[in-house]
Amino acid sequence: MIRFWRCALLLFALAVPPALAAEPMPPAGLIALDGRPAPELGLKDMDGKATDLAQLKGRWVLVHFWAGWCGPCRREMPTLAAMQQALPAGRLTLLLVNTAETDDEVFAFLASVNMDLAPLMDRDGLATRRWQPRGLPSTFIVDPAGRLRYLALGGRDWASPAYLDFLEALTAR
């Protein structure tokens, strides 16, 4: 009988990849994804500075799709800034992808929520089509290997203890 349980435990250990077994439990509302490679993402901010997700391999990245006309995006944006300030520096890279708005619209939005962030501009909508967010806001969490790990649909409080604790534990690994 003991031999059976040893075999069962060994099979379980082999079936669960070590990286997944050690991951913290995601808070409610965060959907675990299958770990497929993240789509290509190379965009410029309003100042013309380019950012390419491929160059961020080795880091956890939060890719957030939003628009200024989106009510939940307006409420959520300050919590993203608070989350970024609350997490230890360098643990999580935040990429804010604006979906097909003009610079003037984005400036007006950022001023209205008193934000000092540099959103990436998806002017032609190509990145949004590649990533296929299911509405706005949509947030993807990409692991250091460049794989899609989690998805958040709709607005949420990223600065809440549940999300901060999860992200801190996830990115500490």
Question: What is shown here, in short?
Answer:
This protein has helices at 2-15, 18-21, 71-86, 103-112, 126-131, 161-171; strands spanning 30-32, 42-45, 50-52, 60-66, 92-99, 120-122, 138-142, 148-153. The chain has 173 residues and is of the alpha+beta class.
Which terms would index this structure?
173 residues; alpha+beta; Glutaredoxin; antioxidant activity; Thioredoxin_CS; isomerase
Task: Describe the fold and architecture.
This protein has 173 residues and is an alpha+beta fold. It has one domain (31-171): Glutaredoxin (3-Layer(aba) Sandwich). 35% of the residues lie in helices and 23% in strands. It has an eight-stranded mixed beta sheet with strand order 1-8-7-4-5-6-2-3. Strand 4 (60-66), helix 3 and strand 5 form a beta-alpha-beta unit. It is globular, with a radius of gyration of 18 Å. Residues 4-20 have low confidence and may be disordered.
Overall SS class: alpha+beta
State which percent range the strand residues make up.
15-25%
Q: Give the strand order, joined by hyphens, for the main sheet.
A: 1-8-7-4-5-6-2-3
Give the radius of gyration: 18 Å
Low-confidence stretches: 4-20
CATH architecture label: 3-Layer(aba) Sandwich
Determine the number of helices (DSSP H or I, runs of at least 4 residues).
6
CATH topology: Glutaredoxin
Mean pLDDT value = 88
Write down how many β-strands occur, each being a DSSP E stretch of 2 or more residues.
8
What count of domains describes the coordinates? 1
- Overall outline: globular
Q: H/E order of the elements?
A: HHEEEEHEHEHEEH
- How does the major sheet shape up? 8 strands, mixed
**Percentage of residues in helical conformation:** 25-40%
CATH superfamily: Glutaredoxin
What separation lies between the terminal Cα atoms? Answer: 36 Å
CATH class: Alpha Beta
